[in-house]
Design goal:
Order of helices and strands of chain A: HHEHHEEEEHEH
Strand content of chain A: 15-25%
Number of helices of chain A: 6
Strand order of the largest sheet of chain A: 1-3-2
Oligomer: homodimer
Number of domains of chain A: 2
Number of strands of chain A: 6
Largest sheet of chain A: 3 strands, antiparallel
Radius of gyration of chain A: 18 Å
Mean pLDDT of chain A: 84
Low-confidence stretches of chain A: 150-175
CATH superfamily of the largest domain in chain A: Winged helix-like DNA-binding domain superfamily/Winged helix DNA-binding domain
Largest interface: A-B, 52 and 56 residues
Distance between the termini of chain A: 40 Å
Chain lengths: ~180, ~180
DNA sequence: CTTCCTGCAAAGGGTTTGCACGCCT
DNA sequence: AGGCGTGCAAACCCTTTGCAGGAAG
């Protein structure tokens, strides 16, 4: 019962829903790419390897379902695409995202460190904080090394593609 | 030269661009609604009062332009719409957004408090932080008072709809 | 058989782009 | 003239929805 797949099956069963082959495929893709922040389309493409008849709509519906179950995190980095990542059982809402403005990669930062901020907010405004999203935009170690304007290296992952525009322009979202 | 409008005109002039009547109208709307996080459509509707022939495309192009000039902040709270707010000259990237899951209102929190976090990130990961976006999801003082399930008050904005679900489930975006 | 699920295709909503015309220098 | 800027409409992209057929309990 430490198996995430069984866990999801149980959660679903409890509300008369099933872990269909399609759903299991999607779940497996998410598990195989933990910490990778796939888009729905990327999940779809990966999943089609195992389930060629799978449709996009099912992927979206499944990701939605999983999100409601708390099995995945949906993360919107401010470009027009949502990204999804598997969310280990019992994980708090810790861990923030570092988005490289140069190569688009998304790194993670595990420590929370936000409690002082949340406490200050609650105390000073009366707003009850339930969850948070912290995005840090900047340069990842690699791009920092290469210099902000160097042409992209063939070195790193395919590059998750975060919208482009001229580097130097301000990062879409902001606090 | 403290007038933001002149400031923008200058900035534009420097790159052979002009502060046209349309652009000025958009700018005025943003100024009149400082701290209000309007959507492009809301800007458009407001602006049409002063410039009935204005087109949506111009609004988008202008907001884009202003964003590149650093005159406005684009903020994406995780639902499918971008929101824009005037960004006072010389303002750092401080100030965070508190998004009420009940009524959809967006409040602001002026103090930064993120420096310890950013320093920790830079030190531990080598990632160079340039800007950030902190969204706190929860209940605003009003909704908190009314109770999480009270029918919406006539008091607040139409409610921008932030994903619903049982409060307690994680809100769409997350860090 | 009833309910849950699926794929397909169409619809949706926000945002962007192509194009021809207008405006300012 | 020569750009820059604009309105309009069409195009785009991601995501959602309607619907008829299937599978599971």
């Amino acid at each position: 019962m430490h198996d995430p797949i069984d866990h999801v099956r149980d959660r679903l069963g409890r509300q008369d829903q099933r872990l269909t082959p399609q759903r299991e495929t999607v779940l497996r893709v998410l598990l195989e790419h933990a910490n990778e922040h796939l888009t729905a389309e990327e999940v779809y493409l990966e999943a089609r390897g195992a389930a060629p008849d799978l449709g996009m709509a099912t992927v979206y519906r499944t990701l939605d379902l999983f999100e409601r179950l708390g099995v995945v995190h949906r993360l919107d980095a401010g470009q027009g695409v949502a990204r999804y990542e598997f969310r280990p059982e019992g994980e708090g809402h810790y861990h923030h995202h570092l988005i490289c403005l140069e190569c688009g990669r998304i790194l993670e930062f595990e420590r929370d460190l936000l409690e002082p901020v949340e406490r200050a907010v609650e105390k000073e405004t009366g707003f009850l904080v339930i969850d948070h999203s912290l995005l840090l935009f900047g340069l990842c170690p690699d791009c920092r090394r290469t210099g902000p304007d160097a042409p992209s290296q063939g070195a790193s992952p395919p590059r998750p593609d975060v919208g482009e525009r001229d580097p130097g322009a301000s990062p879409g979202a902001s606090s």
